[in-house]
User: Which sequence fits this backbone?
């Protein structure tokens, strides 16, 4: 598995240090708000569980599953494969996402939850690819600004694999250009 990685972009330690800072910021803003934290599955599973361990205050967790990716290119069409079971009305919602790329996924989710009457909707993303944005959408808490390359690890997959890498790396082109 590790041989398929061109180079490591963010090590486990770098990710951990950055998550400490982000969690501190979020704690300062939310510790008395009992927010509804919504990890966007499956990509955000590792990032969100690490973040949640660092958020030591009352909150709820409920997941959504969205998909907009086929292979290594975003299609722009968002599908909500699984919805939350919670009542969103009046809640302070924080989406946890692995990476913001075109922005389609989170724009869709944000607007949907606003329509449902959330008191606020913010976005916490491990990575942001500002160069490939197609819609007007910004992360509120962002770990790192990433280059326009295909990344895997720390929840990010290619064809379902590599999610379990404890770091984020660039996948060798030879792996997906076969
Ligand atoms: P968006 O709707 O912003 O274009 O896409 C967001 C989703 O695309 C992310 O949640 C992630 O699943 C996927 N994605 C975007 N860039 C990458 C990447 O470099 N690697 C992987 N594995 N997935 C990506
Ligand atoms: Mg995703």
Assistant:
């Amino acid at each position: 598995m590790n041989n398929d990685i061109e180079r490591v972009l963010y090590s486990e330690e770098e990710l951990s240090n950055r998550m400490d800072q982000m969690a501190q910021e979020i704690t300062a803003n939310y510790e008395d708000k009992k927010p509804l934290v919504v990890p966007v599955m499956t990509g955000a599973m590792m990032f969100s569980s690490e973040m949640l361990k660092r958020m030591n205050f009352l909150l709820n967790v409920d997941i959504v599953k969205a998909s907009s990716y086929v292979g290594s290119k975003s299609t722009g069409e968002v599908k909500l494969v699984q919805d939350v079971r919670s009542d969103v009305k009046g809640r302070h919602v924080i989406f946890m996402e692995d990476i913001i790329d075109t922005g389609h996924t989170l724009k869709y989710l944000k607007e949907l939850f606003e329509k449902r009457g959330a008191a606020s909707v913010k976005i916490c993303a491990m990575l942001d690819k500002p160069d490939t944005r197609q819609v007007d959408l910004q992360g509120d808490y962002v770990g790192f600004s990433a280059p326009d390359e295909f990344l895997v690890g720390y929840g990010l997959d290619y064809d379902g694999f590599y999610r379990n890498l404890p770091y984020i790396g660039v996948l060798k082109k030879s792996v997906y250009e076969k």
